[in-house]
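Hey all, quick one. A colleague (J.T.) asked me to put the flavin mononucleotide job into the tracker so the inputs and the structure tokens live in one place instead of scattered across chat threads. No bug as far as I know, just bookkeeping. Sequence used:
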Amino acid sequence: MLSILTQLYNLIIRPILFSLPPETAQKIGTFPLRFKIPVKKIFAPINNNILLTTEYCGIKINNPVGTAAGLDKDCMFIPGILSLGFGYLTVGTITASPLKGNSAPRIMRDTQQKAIVNALGFPNNGVEAAIKKLDSIQQKLNKDNIQTPIIASISGINIDDIVYCHKKIEPLVNGIEINISSPNTEGLKIFHEKSTLSKLLTRINDMRTKPLVIKMPHLIDSTKNNTLKIPELLEMVSIITENNIDGITIANSMPIIDSRLSTGNGGMSGKPLFNNMIKIIQEIDKEFKGKIKIHACGGIFSGEDAWSAIEAGAETIQIYSSFIYRGPTIASLINSELLKLKKNSS
Ligand SMILES: Cc1cc2nc3c(=O)[nH]c(=O)nc-3n(C[C@H](O)[C@H](O)[C@H](O)COP(=O)(O)O)c2cc1C
């Protein structure tokens, strides 16, 4: 069944969607996710296999495959995504006020590299709309006894806005991821600076009751052939660990110049990120082992990729681009491949 549905996506649905402009394709392709999809039970033996059970910052999850922020910006697709067997969901990024984002064109595909480039700039309906949506969804989840954790990604360009979002949303979700790393919002760079990051984390720590994760930037030096800025990343993680934050997500999309986008630059996602993502995890794990949980995100397309990220030090993995390229069965595909690797290694 898994291979039939995957082939259906590869041979029929993806070619149709990829013949459309990316934003139109995304709107059409995600529409069915507003509803429950009757595949959860079929794939349960894979996604709920005891060998895959793990944790997201202390919360038990059935498998390590989560959705990355951005796939469900307005908490519209929770019923559908839950049916697909993910171990957890990240919704958002949500901001204090509704935002339209940048003007089009703002998403491009790079099919040869299996990449997506975007300059969306946080279009979302704002925190008030998100809490209404999450409130009604949580009531349904409680009724159906569904315990898959929902993590809300929040952001803003000043501390007060982020604190406001956190306070409003935390009661309705299982954890919060703060996005200080989108390359499409210049104002977020203030949080890459030690003292501002520290102030933000102190304010959030004063009120938080649930796991908190910081989504790290994909820091590169464009003057040095796009080499990774490892010392700067380690410095940020040291502030994060000093503030006893539960986890980090490594990483957001990679800054890139692209004249096809209305803004002239954006963030790249997908396969080209994979090697950098693994390298960043290895460096951080070497320095901070046991002090912080790591969620791997960037170019994970297969069970083998997920396995490499976990071996490098990640607790869970998150995906966005492989959902677009390999289709909605992606959690089950990665989990079935992971299961084979686990069985072979034991
Ligand atoms: C169209 C698009 C929108 C995104 N929106 C967000 C967002 O709102 N918040 C965020 O933290 N990351 C966002 N991301 C980044 C992803 O969460 C992820 O970090 C990145 O795509 C790398 O993972 P991938 O290679 O699996 O796609 C977005 C990515 C894409 C392609």
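Adding what we noticed when we looked at it: The mean pLDDT is 95. The chain has one domain: 2-345.
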